[in-house]
């Protein structure tokens, strides 16, 4: 919605503040893991290639090439563990 309402621009690196203050979300949801990490609702937006698997969310705010494979505007759960076998 942000992209469409803002002339094709994704939120900047302060995505959490921007989404909440502009009313797109009331708060950033917690990521709930079965194990491995705490239950954070933070969004990592910097040095993504060196901060994989730290928990929370990760957001690609720019076009910088790195080893994450992410593209600008993507947000993902920042965990590399496979929890499906824990269910």
Question: How would you summarize the topology of this molecule?
Answer:
Layout (H helix, E strand, L loop, with lengths): L1 H4 L9 H7 L21 E2 L12 E3 L15 E3 L10
Parallel strand pairs: 1-2
Antiparallel strand pairs: 2-3
Overview in brief:
By secondary structure, the chain is mostly loops. It has 2 helices and 3 strands; from the N terminus they run ααβββ. Helices cover 13% and strands 9% of the residues.
**Beta-strand segment tally:** 3
Overall spatial form:
globular
Strand content: 5-15%
Sheet of most strands? 3 strands, mixed
Mean pLDDT: 87
Q: How helical, in percent, are the residues?
A: 10-25%
Number of helices: 2
Unreliable segments of 5+ consecutive residues: none
SS class: little secondary structure
Order of helices and strands: HHEEE
Radius of gyration: 14 Å
Q: Termini separation (Å)?
A: 33 Å
Features:
87 residues, little secondary structure, three-stranded mixed β-sheet, 13% helix, globular
